# Entry
Amino acid sequence: MAKSKAARKTVTKTTPKKSASKPKAAPKKTAAKTTAPKGKGYTLAHVTHEAVEQIGGIGTVLEGLMTSPEYKSRVDRSILIGPMGGHVHVPNPNLRLGDMGKVLYSSIDSIDELGLAAKFQPIEWAFDVSIAYGTRQYDQPSQGRNGEAEVLLIDVSHVNEARNNAFKARLWEEFGLDSARYQSGWDYEEYVRLAEPAYYALHALLKDEDFPCILFSHEFMGMPAALKSIMDGGDKFRTIYHAHECPTARRLCEDHPGNDTMFYSVLDTAQAKGLYVEDVFGNLDDMMRHALVKRTHLLDGIIAVGDRTRDEIKFLSDDFDDMDVTLVYNGLPAHKVDLPLKNKMRGHLQEFSKKLLGFTPDILMTHVARPVISKAIWRDLQVCHEMENQLVAADKKAVLYILTSAGGTRSKADVEHMCNSYGWPLHHKAGYPDLCGPEVELANDAAEFNLNHKNVKVVLVNQFGWGPDRVGPYCHKDLDMSGLRIATDVEFGAANYEPFGISPLEPLACGAICIISDACGCEGFVRHTTKGKTVTNVITGNYTVPGGTKSIEDLLNITAADREKIELKEAKRIADQLMADVPQTDAKRKKLIESGTKLVDKMGWDQVITDGLAQLLAKVAS
# Structure
């Protein structure tokens, strides 16, 4: 019997500052080909909470992969694995795998089109779970792309407790992972329950020629399944951790009043001194996600979506010193935009703005983001404040639409009621269907800003999507979400924690100036693509400070006031640059569309797969 990878690598039950002994380095392998063997592509299993629906960035990444010809040329089978969750209760079995799904097996619905019951039912009986299996389509008509993936959902709301506890015991014995400490949280328990039935279901689905199966843990959610594969998979499984963020870094950054100004200044200084995160911030094992992610060095490969995320993973412990962390940036969508289309959509958004605000803005600005602290939306207002005097002097007007929602999608009926009753989305009222959660503070900030500024206004649109049904009758029927991206002149995205951030660069090919921060993973992608040259299409806010002679203790004591001083200084610089570069003529708009398109042509999914993912797959599979 082949030795498990767990037997070849070690991990301590506690995390000392320096390990007493480190695993022996794996023998060097010859350079691998970057394509799968002729006639046989890779088998990839992606464990994620977005197997069926796109909730956030992981769903966008999966769509980009599944529809890329470069991915499809290398991969024969893609199997998306996740807990069934809310898809247990659906009015129609066809919806169990989402709008674009086709159910081929479901024990809940007594569907078995492929004769899989003989393989799946023993697993369901053994673990007291239910399985749904089928396919999911991906369609990108605007990109001329489509794709398909297999989907495996497992209902883990019930579980065989004896088997589950035995698995947790093995996680402790092999990896020092104390499930008793974290199992009260469903985000841990759910994915521990998923691991073993998913592993055996993969065996049931795959033929001998489909192995080795490369299992991707997208974020912490897939780690229990990856650890199961390490323990028992032998040569049939390889494992890759896909770091769409580093949860340890996110918490440290968001929870400290100094945010990115503190965290990245500390990280850079500490790494230069050979220190790691727990040397600086103390033991962090109270955080379940940290406990899982700091064990990712046991996997066969690690992907980071941005330069900062790679730094953060390396900062976790000295176990990562000899571990390659492969940069695989997120690809950007390639909008096909010309000047007439740009002007048409700008006209629609200007018309909407005039009806809503009473004036026609010369500069159209947007920020599409989740309403969370990491998006640092207050930095948008700081830049807008610095623009005010220049706008007055130039006799120009501007508007910023902040499109974000903490309350899901408001219905057409609710939108009509809010618009007719009190002029939503310019004006708001607390309570659903209008303001809820963090939207309240954002609306208050926007209202206060508008009282004190004449030539630039801020509008909070607390909604998902765009169009007449989503934002009211003032909106032209052709101005959907894609049209909004085309229309905008400026896209804000100066986040304080942003592992990559596709959204801030989405309008790049549409001729927009994109404002990002030095904390954004996409900043490294831009720098890599432009070979470090400054481009008009992207403005980067620099919110971190070099450590220099400052001690780590001094940097840890950076306050909110210290951060704000840097933010205000950057706001003035960004506003000056923006007012100098934002296009006011068709000639300048056309030039920005052309330069933005050239950038995006080098930043698509095909490029990032060829440049990064292909090499890692070949290395891991070999």
